[in-house]
Amino acid sequence: MNSELTHRLSELLEQVTGFIYPNEIEIHWSILIVVYPYVTGLVAGAFILASLVKVFNVVEVRPTYRLSLLTALAFLLIAPLPLVLHLGRPERAFEIFLSPNLSSAMAMFGFVYAWYLMGILLLEIWFEYRRDLIVWARQKRFPMSFLYRVLALFSTDISDKAVELDSRAAKIITMIGIPSAFLLHGYVGFIFGSVKANPWWSSVLMPIVFLMSAIVSGIALVTLLYMIITPLRGKPIDIRCLDKITSYLFYAVIVDFALEGLDFIHRLYESEESVKILSALIDQKLFISVLVMQVVLGMIVPLIMLVAVKAGRLNEDLRKLFYFTSCILIQIGIFSMRWNVVIGGQLFSKSFRGLMTYKMEVVGVEGLLMAAALLIAPFLVLAVLLKLLPAWKEAEEH
Amino acid sequence: MKRRDLLKNLIVFLPVSRSFFSCAAQASGTAPIQGYDPDNHLYGMGIEVSKCIGCGKCIEACKTENNVPQEPFFCRTWVERYIVRNDKSVAVETVRTTQKETRAAPNEKDILRSFFVPKLCNQCEHPPCVQVCPVGATFQTRDGVVLVDSDRCIGCRYCIQACPFGARYLHPEKRTADKCTFCYHRVVKGLLPACVEVCPTQARIFGDLKSKASQLVRFQRMNNVHVLKPHLNTEPKVYYSDLDGVVT
């Protein structure tokens, strides 16, 4: 047997407190499975932000519309990677599509993912960019002109009627897209929430908590990207746009905070048989990541900052600083929340008598470096997408 | 052939050929034992808690019979030792087979009661592991045993998370989920599971729930039987006689 694994598990065995079942020493869902819901959450959140423009006609947010769509696409393209890399037999990953077990929440991944990628996101982006693709195909030289023609699927009609049709199609797709985005991330929450063996996960609120935190993280990310990219382009940041987005962000954080608070109070009040071990879990294993990072830094401080902006008459620069800081803190908070759910749920024994330890690898397929690479990869994809499909040209024309 | 016809034929051909090959593989790999009809059986196990002496022979036999890695982190079956002290505090530990026991002997006067509890896959009637497996690699046989097809398992480990009893592990070499099979390869030939065969005190009783004459049905008739974590409604088929309330 792999002596490195034996050594690692023997080490972990010494750090067990109380009693655990012998098979529980290995923490099976590693940091890659923390990255997965974080990344899909960003996809869903970014898409919801985009839908504000298309469906709810929030004009102030218009400058971030295309950026939101491309961000969602960039992260969605990377989303399956942590899952595949984490599999014991990654070469069989495609079996999920070929022979799905219909009673498995996880088996639905293939369908939800394919539907969201092909049915919603790519279609919406195509309709949004079709006119521009045709124009670029005419303006640019070979081979870019050919690439744009291919991307436009060789369509050439840019009459007002055709463009009007594009816009209507994009609107309809967004309308279908909102419940789809809810489905995509709600389903990720369901994967955890439906595990009745695990009291830390098993909660009917889990899908909705995942969804709200997805919206929070997605909006915060697009805000951050907008605030970073716009000055790099040498353009002024539209403060009206920022005020509007962060106002939505503020409400989303409040709902998310309320839901998570409700879940916590509900568990404490019901005090089921698992309450002792879960208290020990928070106290001994997750104190920093739950209380300090997720609740205080990730929620309360950003909320105070956003309230301060709303209540006080702060000048533009200070507002930007507050927005930027709170968006970064929110990212830290949501990542910690994913960590606390995924890793936290595996740190206590199902005998409710002991706690385990997760020792993250640094190198290795399921290690810290890989997780960091997977978190950086979507930004590289986004950079390519933004180069290929500039996000602001049309916005400036309006 | 027109393109439309070709596509139509492909749509029919691909799934049909796939199911044909899987049938053929099943036929060649696990040819049914002659005269054995799984519909006539429903397997379960009884555990007479008071008879277990914690010798760990069952663990050794299981590891040898089923090529389970020798390390203590991978178990298809294990034995827990419970010590309830006078102050009602409970100490639990797993009986080890691979190394000499180094634990300090508890002070006898301090002990209220003490006993051993063998554990294994409960072969649940409603197995959460089967429900969550994304590719159907974990399945329930018609005679009530939950098995893992290691040629199909993708190693996602959702089943390990879903099992309330900690009965599953990831096989370190195969990189697929693994668990107790009730020694299915032996049972269908009329033999007993290895752990039952070697138990020196006959604390484990294997049998057919469909046969009134089976030892297991007799065990259920003569004892107060309990199952683990009944509130989860998985309906285990491993039954414990006079199970202590502190056992989780």
Topology:
The complex is a heterodimer of chains A (398) and B (248).
Chain A: H1 3-14, E1 17-18, H2 31-54, H3 65-78, H4 80-86, H5 95-98, H6 108-139, H7 144-151, H8 160-193, H9 206-232, H10 239-270, H11 275-285, H12 287-311, H13 316-342, E2 354-355, H14 368-388, H15 393-397
Antiparallel strand pairs in A: 1-2
Helix pairs in contact in A: 2-3, 2-4, 2-8, 2-9, 2-13, 2-14, 3-6, 3-9, 3-14, 6-7, 6-8, 8-9, 9-10, 9-13, 10-12, 11-12, 12-13
Chain B: H1 3-29, E1 43-48, H2 57-66, E2 77-85, E3 90-94, E4 111-120, H3 128-132, E5 138-140, E6 146-148, H4 158-162, E7 169-170, E8 177-178, H5 184-187, H6 194-198, E9 204-208, H7 215-222, E10 225-226, E11 238-241
Parallel strand pairs in B: 1-11
Antiparallel strand pairs in B: 1-9, 2-3, 2-4, 5-6, 7-8, 10-11
Describe this structure in words.
The complex is a heterodimer of chains A (398) and B (248). By secondary structure, chain A is mainly alpha-helical. Chain A has helices spanning 3-14, 31-54, 65-78, 80-86, 95-98, 108-139, 144-151, 160-193, 206-232, 239-270, 275-285, 287-311, 316-342, 368-388, 393-397; strands at 17-18, 354-355. Chain A has a domain at 31-243 and 361-390: Formate dehydrogenase/DMSO reductase fold (Up-down Bundle). Chain B has helices at 3-29, 57-66, 128-132, 158-162, 184-187, 194-198, 215-222; strands at residues 43-48, 77-85, 90-94, 111-120, 138-140, 146-148, 169-170, 177-178, 204-208, 225-226, 238-241. In chain B, the strands form 4 sheets. A 4-stranded mixed beta sheet of chain B has the order 9-1-11-10, covered by helices on one side. In chain B, 26% of the residues lie in helices and 21% in strands. The interface between A and B is large, with 48 and 50 residues.
Care to give the gist of this entry?
The complex is a heterodimer of chains A (398) and B (248). Chain A has 15 helices and two strands.
